[in-house]
Amino acid sequence: MKRFTTLRAATLRADVTASLVVFLVAVPLCVGVAVASGVPAELGLVTGVVGGLLTGLLPGSSLQVSGPAAGLTVLVFEAVKEYGIGALGALVLAAGVLQLAMGALKLGRWFRAISVAVVQGMLAGIGLVLIAGQLYALTDAKAPGTGLANIGSLPSLVVDTVGSATALSALGVGVGTIAVLVLWPRWRAAARLLPAPLAAVALATTTVWALDLPIARVQVSGLLDAIQPPGLADLGRLTEIGVLGTVVAFALIASAESLFSAAAVDRLHDGPKTDYDKELMAQGAGNAVCGVLGALPMTAVIVRSAANVQAGAQTKASRVLHGLWLLVFAAAFPTALGVVPVAALAGILVHAGWKLMPLRELRPLWREHRGEAVVLTVTALAIVTVNMFEGVLIGLLLAVAKTAWETSHVHLEVRTPERMEEPVLVRAVGNATFLRLPKILDQLDALPADRDVELDLSGLRHLDHACGAALSNWAEQHRRSRRAVELVS
């Protein structure tokens, strides 16, 4: 009994320590994601609180931590710009309900069937759009809007920044924040004491205060004032096609990011593995509550989850406690956010956007699986040039087309007897689909024109309707030229 009590005490100590580490990592990320999404900073903390206190309690994944994520920043910003902040709660609520339904229907495991190239392309596209937008926030400038517009206006941003002392000051703070994020983890003693994002924001805030720099700070409205539950008019907009498309995008992208994060976190520890359907329902419940509160959508976040595991978390208590610390911070120290420079948060998100792009994997992927590299690149570029939802759809369709092409290999084995009265023997092997039809017909048309043909289809694993009809038509035309054709199936 004494040994059991000691073990429980040790587990609790480990979970409390891990929860404090995750809390320190989560605070700047929650605030930064909210500001980049175009909503009050407090709403990022609200989502973090719900992710800890509610989603953290529910079954699914034991050590994965949920909250607002950089991966949804671009989509949320576009939704707020298009439909207004009042409609955000309705969108997130509907997305949560959709996730609950998908989990109840046992669809969680099917997200594992999504092409990794599409997911990596989605994250790369998000990273590019996120960086392009936050480069403006680095200089206290306002971004033009869409991904292409932000990228196209970068030369003007450079000119405006060079001619403004205030913009240069903000840029210095932002670049300094990025430098701390990159270099801080290499100072291992300091990194164990204080997470890099919090250290970067603390140093930037102290510098701005000490030098009294005239740059933008986070605007604080108060926790209760920031919470805006959706009204009946906002809920009524869920009948609009565009709004429904955004809901589906929220649900699918948040689910995919959460479940892929779960797979990554499972590889980091030896504890219980994720039940994907239950985790999908936990994410849905969290998003439904976030929607009711008018907060940001949540996903499982690999940065916080990895910090949780590496800090020695043993049970889900660590992620629940991190939500409690966020609630205490948001309720007791809301004005602390008002001294944080926006450029510092932009630096954190530029760094996060860079880490979303799989640059290290792209070169070996191109060498070994060139088709997958093309899918990744096209998905990323489609997200930048069109929008998130349509870009992912383009990537999925391209992945399906690539797979269909690769699996539709067919080979014709031709044997031509020396005796003219004997037919040419042709045996088809593989998968005969319409994608390979031109190749098949070209090979058949190249057979000797003065010989009979025996076409053996028994070696085909699959023969689709289009290909079967085309072969029948070819045989009929062959017979009309007074040559015998025998189809063997």
- Beta content comes to 5-15%
Q: Which bin fits the share of residues in helices? A: 55-70%
Alpha carbon gap, first and last residue? 73 Å
Helices and strands, in order, run as HHEHHHHHHHHHHHHEHHHHHHEEHEEHE
Instruction: Give the class from helix and strand content and strand pairing.
Output: alpha/beta
SSE layout and pairing:
Blueprint (H helix, E strand, L loop, with lengths): L1 H35 L4 H15 L10 E2 L5 H11 L4 H17 L11 H22 L9 H6 L1 H9 L2 H19 L4 H6 L2 H16 L11 H4 L5 H5 L4 H26 L9 H18 L5 E2 L1 H9 L6 H16 L9 H15 L2 H10 L1 H16 L2 H20 L2 E6 L8 E9 L4 H9 L7 E4 L3 E4 L1 H16 L4 E4 L1
Helix pairs in contact: 1-2, 1-10, 1-15, 1-16, 1-17, 2-14, 2-16, 3-13, 4-13, 4-14, 5-17, 5-19, 5-20, 8-10, 8-17, 13-14, 13-15, 18-19, 19-20
Give a quick rundown of the structure.
65% of the residues lie in helices and 6% in strands. It contains 22 helices and 7 strands. β3 and β4 form a beta hairpin.
Features:
489 residues; alpha/beta; 65% helix; five-stranded mixed sheet
Description:
The protein is of the alpha/beta class and about 500 residues long. The protein has 22 helices and seven strands. It has helices spanning about 1-35, 40-55, 75-85, 90-105, 115-135, 145-150, 155-160, 165-185, 190-195, 195-210, 225, 230-235, 240-265, 275-295, 300-310, 315-330, 340-355, 360-370, 370-385, 390-405, 435-445, 465-480, and strands at about 65, 300, 410-415, 425-430, 455, 460-465, 485-489. A hairpin with an 8-residue loop joins strand 3 (about 410-415) and strand 4 (about 425-430). Helix 2 runs antiparallel to helix 16 (about 315-330). The longest helix is centred in the N-terminal third of the chain and has 35 residues, at about 1-35. The chain starts with a helix and ends with a strand. The mean pLDDT is about 85.
